[in-house]
Amino acid sequence: MRIVKEHDVRKKEILDKAANLFVAKGYSKSTVNDIINAVGIAKGTFYYYFKSKEEVMDALIMNFVSYSADIIAKNVNEPGKTAMQKFKDINDRNYRVVPGFNEMFLELQYSNNAEMQYKVILKTIKKISPLLARLVRQGIAEGVFKTEYPDEFAELLMLFSQFIFENDVFGFSAKTLGKKAKATASFMENILGVKKGSFDFVAHRYANLNKKNTKSPHRNESNPIS
Asked: Domains in the chain, ordered, with CATH?
């Protein structure tokens, strides 16, 4: 048990130091030697845990995704609440960011490193879509939602969320994103067969995300897609 604990502690130390380094210096400018020096370990020790800088970033990405999925899973599995109540709980939480890793997430989001950004998006979609599909099935069982496509609905919702809103891949203007937020809420209502306005809280969340995105110092304000 002691060996396992020491292994996990050392691995976490490497990840923590690497995360700080990527934020301070930038992922693309950081090297394996930089990580080794920051941790104070031998090169062989680093390669015992990770094969490359890219593998370190992959592990950090999985920290983000696992944290998000764990929170959503708790919401989905919470007893005594309806599916709609659980959707609201999930919508109201900032489940993307591991505590203490906010700067790391922003480095990923705005560093113009498309490969790493897409890894975050794709891993998030793959991990969280099944949880949302399970929530839709609960709503169907309750007689509130009416759809034959719970899995497809969940995947499409995650695609909208990750590519258009959470990560602002296309660089739409705030006005256009506001319209797309309303369209997404309308899409959810139509597919799930609920009355208009049932998912206004989703449009409101995305509108708030849009305001934060357009205020980011990394965003190119001079040429937004309108």
From this structure: 1-51 (1.10.10.60), 54-214 (1.10.357.10)
